[in-house]
């Protein structure tokens, strides 16, 4: 029975708002500036590279640790549930009224690193290439997510991981709807430029 506490821990890990905490260190409430999200991209935009990297690592690790603990305790489905709980609490953070608060991309990359490391390498490569070419982090996130969805069917990944990929990628796409619309309108923020 105590093993099920791992899922509560996974949810709590996902809810740690690293960008918000880093912003407090610098005297900036990231919810009130930039995109208003408590995620990695907004941290880079508002807090600079050093703190942005720390937030990236924090968000990545909470996803990875949640998936690892679930995988260790219950096998593949446990890893998936642990990872999804972390993504959910990051993206709809209980500390901020369950409102949309992040996109879950860094945490998602942490999860798939534990579950499917070969897929991760390809997806991150696509993410970096798209951001480098377009300077749109949102488009890098979307294409990286779609790459995950494709690669889980290219590689002989377990059925459970394919289910996870479909659910997680749909969540990423839904959370990026406004970004996609801004890209189409030409109003999306480009990485490395100031608003």
Automatic annotation (TrEMBL):
Residue ranges crossing the lipid bilayer per the database entry: 37-57, 69-92, 104-129, 136-155, 161-180
Catalytic activity: an acyl phosphate + sn-glycerol 3-phosphate = a 1-acyl-sn-glycero-3-phosphate + phosphate
Membrane topology, from the record: Multi-pass membrane protein
A Gene Ontology cellular-component term: plasma membrane
Pathway involvement of the protein, from the record: Lipid metabolism; phospholipid metabolism
GO MF terms, alphabetically ordered: acyl-phosphate glycerol-3-phosphate acyltransferase activity
Primary location: membrane
General function of this protein: Catalyzes the transfer of an acyl group from acyl-phosphate (acyl-PO(4)) to glycerol-3-phosphate (G3P) to form lysophosphatidic acid (LPA). This enzyme utilizes acyl-phosphate as fatty acyl donor, but not acyl-CoA or acyl-ACP.
Protein's recorded name: Glycerol-3-phosphate acyltransferase
Organism: Desulfosporosinus lacus DSM 15449
């Amino acid at each position: 029975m105590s093993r099920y506490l791992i899922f509560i821990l996974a949810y709590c890990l996902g809810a740690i708002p690293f960008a918000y905490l880093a912003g407090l260190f610098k005297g900036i409430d990231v919810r009130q500036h930039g995109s208003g999200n408590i995620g990695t991209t907004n941290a880079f935009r508002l807090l600079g590279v050093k703190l942005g990297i720390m937030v990236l690592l924090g968000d990545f690790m909470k996803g990875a640790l949640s998936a690892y603990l679930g995988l260790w305790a219950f096998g593949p489905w446990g890893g998936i549930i642990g990872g999804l709980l972390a993504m959910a609490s990051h993206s709809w953070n209980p500390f901020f009224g369950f409102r949309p608060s992040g996109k879950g991309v860094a945490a998602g990359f942490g999860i798939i690193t534990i579950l499917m490391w070969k897929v991760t390498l390809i997806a991150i490569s696509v993410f970096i290439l798209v951001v480098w070419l377009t300077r749109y982090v949102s488009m890098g996130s979307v294409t990286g997510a779609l790459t995950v969805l494709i690669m889980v069917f290219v590689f002989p990944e377990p059925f459970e991981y394919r289910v996870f990929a479909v659910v997680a990628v749909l969540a990423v796409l839904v959370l990026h709807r406004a970004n996609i619309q801004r890209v189409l309108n030409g109003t999306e923020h480009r990485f490395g430029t100031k608003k």
